[in-house]
Design goal:
By secondary structure, the chain is of the alpha/beta class. It is built from ten helices and 14 strands. The structure holds S-adenosylmethionine and iron/sulfur cluster.
Length: about 325
């Protein structure tokens, strides 16, 4: 599938739940508790139907996300069913890591995900300091996350990425511990610019730390970073190497990188059945009603094509964008 601006669409992010066991202050502040009613959330069968039809249209990569996807029972079995869809080549999961080491049917959830065919795990990690982690997420769950990362390593994911959202007056203290930890775990660390996907006051001068500023701070400690223009993962991160160790680190500059959207290949399915052509746009199109009204696969394919046709050239984040939905309700 190709949109009006030449974006080749091959990647679908599926949010399986808007619920979460943490309350990151840039994503889901403590007071926000309005979950979707159960009947509004797509069943796994409904999601699989969208994925099957999507795979027929060229979707090859799927990322399971949320909310916290591992709070929804049955995610590993859901992933195994995704892996069985012809045409789906890669499956990843985005998680806060708190439940990866939990035992289910005699093994860790991480091991169950790998057995189900999930190749990559993106784990959010803003701090290695327990008190700072708690301030950031409103939960004292850092030890669980670190156990979860170890469980993910033991489980044998092909790639483990650690994602840290850049917050002024917070992340400055985290660069060195996070970079050294990521190296010790052979995980790929990325720093993500704060985006306006939560309450409006989160993205403020007081909180925003740009990737270029972050890079300068990393360089103050590790020396000049070497650009790696040919190193790519599935997303829009820009990668560099630390010369002394060869460790790669990524920067995701959603706000300041003017080329951010050029190679976008994604669609997002929200847990309540809306297909969104862009994280940073108000556009969303309801698939749930069509699914529940008994639409045919051809009709579903036409709906998906129509969403692709409306994919914008780039996000609206720099344009005084005010979120109409929280990240938790879209799927990161
Ligand atoms: N609960 C999982 C997790 O935390 O990784 C998956 C969902 S979360 C919404 C996906 C990603 O979005 C996380 O890496 C999180 O840090 C990021 N995120 C959430 N709110 C954000 C914001 N306002 N700006 C930038 N990234 C954000
Ligand atoms: Fe939950 Fe992930 Fe949002 Fe944090 S970033 S509140 S862990 S969904």
């Amino acid at each position: 599938m190709e949109d009006a601006f030449g974006h080749q669409i091959s990647y679908l992010r599926v949010s399986v739940t808007d619920r979460c066991n943490e309350r990151c202050r840039y994503c889901m502040p403590e007071e926000e508790q309005a979950w979707f009613p159960k009947e509004e959330v797509l069943s796994y069968e409904e999601m699989l139907r969208v994925l099957r039809v999507g795979a027929g249209l060229g979707i090859k990569k799927v990322r399971v996300t949320g909310g916290e996807p591992l709070t929804r029972p049955g995610v590993a079995d859901f992933c195994a069913q995704i892996a069985a869809i012809p045409g789906i080549e890669q499956i990843g999961i985005s998680t806060n890591g708190t439940l990866l080491s939990k035992e289910e049917q005699g093994e860790t959830i991480a091991a169950r995900l790998v057995k189900a065919g999930v190749q990559s795990a993106n784990v959010s990690l803003d701090s290695l300091d327990r008190a700072a982690y708690q301030r950031s997420t409103s939960r004292d769950l850092l030890p669980k996350v670190l156990d979860g990362i170890d469980a993910a390593i033991d489980a044998g994911f092909r790639s483990i990425r650690l994602n840290c959202v850049l917050m002024k007056n917070q992340t400055e203290r985290e660069f060195v511990p996070l970079i050294d930890y990521a190296r010790s775990k052979d995980a790929l660390l990325r720093f993500i610019e704060l985006m306006p996907v939560s309450t409006q006051d989160v993205l403020s001068e007081a909180n925003f730390l740009s990737t270029s500023h972050a890079k300068q701070m990393v360089e103050q400690h590790y020396g000049p970073l070497t650009p790696l223009p040919d190193f790519k993962t599935n997303g829009p991160a820009t990668y560099y190497a630390i010369p002394a160790t060869g460790q790669k680190i990524g920067f995701i500059g959603a706000m300041t990188n003017l080329h951010f959207c050029e190679n976008c290949n994604k669609l997002r399915l929200t847990s309540d059945g809306k297909l969104r052509p862009c994280l940073g746009s108000y556009l969303e199109f309801d698939l749930r009603e069509a699914l529940r009204a008994g639409c045919s696969d051809e009709e579903l394919a036409t709906l998906i094509h129509n969403v692709v046709a409306r994919k914008p050239k780039e996000h609206d984040f720099r344009d005084n964008y005010q979120p109409n939905r929280k990240m938790i309700a879209i799927g990161g």
